[in-house]
Specification:
By secondary structure, the chain is an alpha/beta fold. It has 11 helices and 11 strands. The strands form 2 sheets. A 9-stranded mixed beta sheet has the order 1-5-4-6-3-9-10-2-11, sandwiched between helices. A two-stranded antiparallel sheet has the order 7-8. Helix 9 packs across helix 11. It is globular, with a radius of gyration of 20 Å.
């Protein structure tokens, strides 16, 4: 009931068209139904998961829930021209990896909601490198079923249950094999959070989380996989802002079933300039593996923090003060009522 009341307060209080108690009741009824199904008959994710659209559309299920929480008047898409370049690269059969910060459980839906108008294929075709919590928590699972995933167990949770460590490591190896095969086919868009989880570092300026440091080994893995693949690969720093919509717990929880708080708020995504890997590593000795990993990871993280800072300002600024590269392509279409998405 706590989540229901919280969601109702956020959605109905937004005042947007269709943000009624009836809308909330219908959305939360589907959430309860799908979570109960997961408790009774748990869905088991394989190393690679394709979003499920039939007989039940889990993609639209997730979009509908988060759509009610997003303040599109304040939300921003940064550097649309770079997203256009990414789509062109994918159309040529090349691979693209987004090295992103990860703020909340809403991130996949936020990504898709802000891209669906101008770049619909990016919204639906992206493959998320997903940690174990989003495929084991009964509340998360129905939402994860509506996304393309490469399932891995992050370092942060690999030893949560010591007797499962070997099985988790084996699944990670299978996932890496699947990722390499997909990249060899080409035309793949991957989203990964090299920090290994949601941002936890709190900004002293506003009390919100800011991007956590990247794990150099995770960035290097993406570089190595894209380099080994037959098609050309591209690495981009990627900033996500969704903190207010669904603030995470302040500490990493090893147990399943965290308390969830939701709000109606502005969100944003932005992509930085592509990383020129050869130039970034040109001055680093070829035999100094650690230094090369650190240099690439630092460049990726710096790109994310730069974009994140500008994106945060764009979401919170008065409309007349927002830089022109932060746009709202969804406003090119007539506004629709939330009821239209039921």
């Amino acid at each position: 009931m706590e989540l229901y009341d919280n969601y109702k307060k956020a959605v109905v209080g937004s005042g947007k068209p269709g943000a009624t108690e009836d809308f909330v009741a219908k959305v939360m009824a589907t959430v309860c139904e799908r979570v109960l199904m997961q408790v009774q008959q748990p869905f088991v994710f394989q190393s690679t998961h394709k979003l499920i659209l039939e007989p039940y559309n889990y993609y639209l299920f997730g979009q509908r829930y988060i759509r009610g929480l997003v303040d599109f008047d304040k939300s921003r898409l940064g550097h649309a021209e770079r997203f256009a370049t990414i789509q062109e690269q994918l159309d040529r059969g090349e691979n693209v990896v987004l090295l992103a910060n990860h703020q909340t459980e809403a991130d996949p839906a936020v990504f898709a909601l802000l891209l669906e108008t101008q770049f619909p294929r990016l919204a639906t075709d992206v493959i998320y490198v997903a940690g174990d919590r989003v495929v084991t928590d009964p509340v998360c699972v129905p939402f994860s079923m509506g996304r393309n995933l490469f399932c891995v167990h992050s370092k942060k949770h690999l030893d949560d249950v010591p007797e499962l460590r070997a099985d988790k490591a084996a699944m990670n190896r299978r996932t890496l094999k699947d990722m390499q095969a997909a990249l060899n086919r080409g035309g793949q868009l991957l989203w990964i959070a090299p920090s290994g989880g949601r941002d936890r570092t709190i900004s002293p300026e506003n009390g919100e989380t800011v991007p956590d440091a990247f794990d150099p080994a995770a960035v290097e893995l993406m570089r190595a996989l894209t380099t080994r693949a037959k098609p050309v690969g591209h690495l981009y720093p990627f900033a996500m802002y969704s903190y207010k919509v669904m603030p995470p717990p302040t500490s990493i929880e090893k147990t399943i079933g965290e308390q969830r708080v939701v709000n109606h708020a502005g969100v944003g995504i932005s992509v930085g300039p592509e990383l020129d890997v050869d130039s970034l590593l040109a001055a680093v000795p070829a035999d100094d593996k650690a230094a090369r990993q650190a240099a690439l990871s630092s460049a990726a993280f710096d790109g994310v923090t730069t974009e994140y800072t500008a994106l945060w300002r764009a979401v919170h600024a008065a409309p007349e003060d927002v830089a022109p590269e932060y746009t709202q392509p969804w406003k090119a279409e007539p506004a629709r009522s939330l009821v239209d998405y039921l």
